[in-house]
Amino acid sequence: MTIEGSRLTAPEVVLQDAALADGRGPRLAQRVSVLVRDGRIAGLWQGEPDLAGLRDVVAIDASGATLVPGLVDMHGHVALSGGARHRDRLTDDTETMLRVAEENGTAAFASGVRWIRDLGSSMRTVDGAAPAPLAVTLRDRWRARADRPVVVAGSTWITCPGYLGDGVGIDAPDGGALPALALAQLETGADFVKLYLEGPTPEACPWTVEEVARAVKAVHAEGRKVAVHAVSHAAAQVAAAAGVDTLDHGFELDDEIARTMAGNGVALVTTLSALRAFCDYGTLAPWTRHGPLLEERREQLRVAGESVGVALAAGVTVVAGSDQGGGSVRAGHLALELELLVQAGMSPVDALAAVTWRAGEVLGIPAAGRIEVGEPATFLLVHGNPLEDPSALWRVWLRAGA
Amino acid sequence: MNGRGDKFGRVSGDWAGGRGDTGGMAPADPVQGQVDAYNARDVEAFLACYAPDTEIFSDPFAAPELRGTAAIRERYARLFEAEPGLHCEIRVRVRAGAWTVDEELVARSTGAIHCLVAYHVADGLIDRVLFLDTPAAQA
Asked: pTM (2 decimals)?
């Protein structure tokens, strides 16, 4: 007898008696059963499931496990490898990056990530097509793959000259060039625009509020969104006032910036994991650039955690990303971000929402991060209660789909 | 126009293309061509730079302010008739891919108006215009 595939890939399968943590409330629902038919959720019950008339259904005893929506990683770099030398990897050849991306896709999917928003990849020519961000290529390649996350592909980095190095991103010589460069990036097939708001001096954003706002208006006119890399206080000030859609990183927010973000509808995408990784590399690879910066990174991580609290207090929508690849974190480690958010004072239910349904809303994909009848089955089963212990998300047992 | 993926470049507005004498033929550079036609108040030359289904937006979240040749003709024929001193000066032009973004200083009888306008060009004609800081109706 040959047996192939998971029971979850059967045409009709019911998972019985799981707990449910969907990020909507602080308490688990008990004895939840879910029926999956042809990859979609066909039934959801608390208590006894109604399975009358189902003769070929495959039943899986899910008691002792917890149903969690598929995860949304709001900040990753699918074509980058991460690691202590992650900056060196920005100029790897295209073939290497594409192979790394496949490794990342496997790892992210295995960890339960079903959507990943890519926040920057190099412009490359693949298979004779016009130059485009690699994330666009991967989005299109993976669209028909049941074992890969859905990629929402950002533009390449639009940055001030030379800041990320030759061949990495597109240089804007001044802020006046931002609208045209942003619009041209959308022409490459990018789903949204990424602006890199840091420059040679951390005290000053390379562009003014007015210049960034014009780029935002141009991109909005095309029905798309703008995400910005804003680590420093100065960059966050500009991003918040310019009304970007997401302010990513946001390690140095203050009350005024947070109020401006809330007023302008700017969401914070946290990436505490990146700073935590920098701290780890300071001890694990002290010969790299992270070694001498260890104490500084620890202090940055502490301040960044406080920034999350500042944002929450001001009513900012907070969602989370791993910064996989770009910020040195490896693919498949989104659970670390939940742990760090809870350590920073966020409630576990809000942390779970930040990588599920709330992230889906910010992403503009309402079905993302939800468990709802009629929607594709994208949930996972973990061991433990993520509403009390976010480390439960490391303990994935089964995943719907491939 | 620049092809997809080209580096952006600046020009000073000194393009020497047709100046209101295109006779309904699109100029090689439709963005500069429509500026020249605007300054000549030549509505036919102006329209020759635009695709028949051009959309002009002033509000990114609203429907197009103008859509199609007839609407553009009506708006600009009226403007050209009413404003004999009309003049558009290009202060800065940035091209990237299919997009050209102009910073324009427009002289009208009511005073000078600063505009930032993005033009999308496809198949040699402008097919999409975004007024980024001043509504099209004022420019």
From this structure: 0.91
